[in-house]
Amino acid sequence: MITEVVTFWGIVQGVGFRPTLSRIAAKYRMRGQVRNMGAFVQLIVTDEPERIDAFIGAVRAGKPRMAEIMSIGREIIDTAHFDDFRIVSSAAAEDEIVAVPADIAVCDECLAEFRNTADPRYRHPFISCVNCGPRYTIMERLPYDRDTTTMNDFPMCGFCEGEYTDPASRRYHAQTVSCNSCGPVAIWRSREEHREHKGDVRLCEKPVIAASEPQSHPKSIDFQEIPDQVRDDGSVFTQSDGSFCVIHRDGAQKEPSPLCSESESAISAAIDAIKGGGVIALKGVGGYYFVCSPFDESAVRKLREIKVREYKPFAVMFASVEQAREYCEISPEEEAMLTSPKRPIVLLEQRRERTGGSPFDLPAKRSGIRTACSMSPWDIPLPSLAGGIDEGGLPVPFAPGMSSTSRFIGAFLPSMALQYMLIEVLGPLIMTSANISDLPIIKDDDEMFAALTRNEHREHKRDGRLCEKSVIAASEPQSHRKSIDFQEIPDQVRDDGSVFTQSDGSFCVQSGQTAQKEPSPLCSGVLYNERRIVRRLDDSVVRVIDGTAQLIRRSKGWTPVPIYVRGTDRLTKNDQMLAVGADLKSAFALTKGSFVYMSQYIGDMDNIETEQVYEDNLESMRKFFRINPRLIACDTHPLYRTVELAKEYARGAELLPVQHHHAHIASVMAEHGLEGPVVGVAFDGTGYGADGTIWGGEILICEGVGAGRFSHLRDIPMTGGDESMRDGWKSAVCRAAKSSLRPPSRNLIVESIVAPVTRNGASGCFDIDISYALKYAEENDTLREYEAERKTIEAAVAQGVNTVRTSSMGRLFDAVASLLGICHVNRYEGECAVTLENAADRAQRSPGVADTADALALRFHMDVAHAILGECRKARAERGIDTVCLSGGVFQNKILMERTLRLLRSDGFTPYYNISVPPNDGGIALGQAYIAMRTQ
């Protein structure tokens, strides 16, 4: 007989690990105790050694489905005596490495109860159990217990407490347990309600009372009229006149409990508002959503005005995979992600017969000035907005303005019962983060209420001053606002005859014949609850590439689960670092030992709101995981706000600058445990280069913490500064100014592979022959609407005035899209590249009969893939390296990525790419952290 202390480390909190261990202990008749230590679960057990071994093996095999045991420590101590087995009070383990669970979607068992009219939690909007519900978003501190979460604001009723303390219940020690009587309730506040909500939650008149609880709400019921239903725990639940009752076999006492009338009426009001063409705000797990019907074009327009988001596609929530399949192509891997407990937004290709004439499925118009890109969704004839099934037996198409120029739909399933209550009545719903353009998602009720009655959207500058007079063109992204005298700007007439303009920071709409201006309408109301959100988390975004799920935005469902970096086992819990990431798609990383805690997606650091959220989250996360970094890694860009923050935090700590594209490749190495050497292919739009130019088409050789530039896309002078990121036509003009028009070579692909490298100092360069695109532009005059500006830009390029040299592959994609007349302006980030890929996809689907520009778009994608292969071949010949890492925003292009992977594998290379972090700048912090960890 011995006593052993067993330590389970990993995702063992908030996933029902202790209750499961307790049930297994009862099965094995073990004596001892288990408790949560904050960083791990500690088991103390006394028995024969072989029985303890069998018990631990049973725990491994029978762990909860959301648990992940990463390590088990065992130590024999002086023999202790226990009379039974129990869960004891939690304790905190100071400074240990912690693995905290992410938020989990409502499980199937809870949904079954939610839909069961004979269950006490029937239609409870916030139903959850030990296997599901919010976690990180409601945790105020460790360890994970009821009193360390915002659920502590809701005292449990006797019924819930009975299940919470019952080892046989699925809600045994489920910290989010609640019901219609004691938990959060849904509350509706319409836009017309200007009075301050008192905050008192009206109690259900007949709450569920466990049989063991004193009867405080007696009611006379004729038991003979109520058909009893026996539950697995031996209790009986009945319903009469809409009321639930509870009776145990050993008692005759029953207590009715109706549905929560406040929740039901609130949800009904929200449904009516959406049916009426309105937009509502809905409080989710990690923040608020804006919600409207994807079938209602007027509602979509209203939503775009609210968010100041004229063209970027919206995500759509479906009730089920079957419903999503009516609109999207879904592979088994995509279905697995849709239904996973993490509930990410999954990028799915639209079914071609369901496009409803969306611009992405139309060849570019080349007979007039307007191109496919500049064609507004509002130009397309509207289908029926009613939803349902059309005459052909197919689902009615979504409103054209819903997805704009994207061939993908961001599809996801509900993660909480309240969303099911809306979607099962209304059908698919647009459910997008409640924010204004690029500002952070709203999480607090007061902030949402303020937005509800606000008639203006003002842009905050970093210094906190408001733009007094600014105008945004209807087709211009918010990030390019200009401070202009409003009186000098003529109103812009929309196709529907309305005028879209802005005065003193607020959007206005007026009819073409009326001088009266009305403020742009905000949402019709707010459907919320009083459970506080501690941390704002957007929904994560995933796509399936190469048969593998890859994160495009890492947030809810993944944050804050740590990433283990192999090869860093020498680091201890005292080795703590901070990687601040990049300015675009900012996310930071904190490290402790061999583990990296990636923050959620925060946003672009171009406004004071996002900057404040970044700093708040950094401080919160640092305290939560008890991390005090002594080494801080940052980008090398001298103007990044994250670099400024790193310098501020580095007082007393060491600062480690990491080149942007090196960090991209290092993020792949971190994920896959690679030490190098590897050939790193880093393609993106913009990154500050080691030579002071703008990089973005880089072939690197990376090993350990070192990196060298092996070759790069031939750099060209680019004019326009930041505007070149928006205006693809400027990239086209600059590229044309430095290229000669010559007939395209029939052996282009072969030549691009075997052509000798032109050495330029320490590195070589390669080029992509786009002479066919230049010739197409000349023959079809695709840039004619920019003829006046073109001459000025060509002169500037020739004389080197106001230009910067760049090797950006992202800008080359923009240039080709514009030269082919497919897209001239990025109205949202990457739109030129997206529409160019759409064109290539059309050509893939119609070989031999594709539109000429589409066929050339596909050719360009193939040429880039072959150029990558060519550069990797040169690196292998010179350095003997056959391991390749692909990263950077350009590799979000599915056609390019999958084609490149096939070419590399067929040629004997082993390619790796980002999976757990995005290939875009959202993964930069992991690469910075990897390099920082390996310098120690």
Notes on the structure:
The chain is α+β, with helices and mostly antiparallel strands and 936 residues long. It is 28% helix and 21% strand. A hairpin with a 2-residue loop joins β36 (758-760) and β37 (763-766). α15 packs across α19 (809-819), α19 (809-819) crosses α20 (831-845) and α21 (852-879) crosses α22 (894-906). The longest helix has 28 residues, at 852-879. It starts with a strand and ends with a helix. Mean pLDDT is 80; it is low at 194-257, 355-359, 364-387, 455-520 and 740-762.
**What is the end-to-end distance?**
44 Å
Shape: globular
Q: Please tell me how large the radius of gyration is.
A: 30 Å
Helix content: 25-40%
Strand arrangement within the widest β-sheet reads: 6-23-11-12-16-13-15-14-24-25
Tell me, rounded to a whole number, the average pLDDT. Answer: 80
Q: Helices and strands: which structural class?
A: alpha+beta
Number of helices: 23
Please count the beta strands (DSSP E, at least 2 residues each): 40
Biggest sheet details: 10 strands, mixed
* Share in β-strands: 15-25%
Low-confidence stretches: 194-257, 355-359, 364-387, 455-520, 740-762
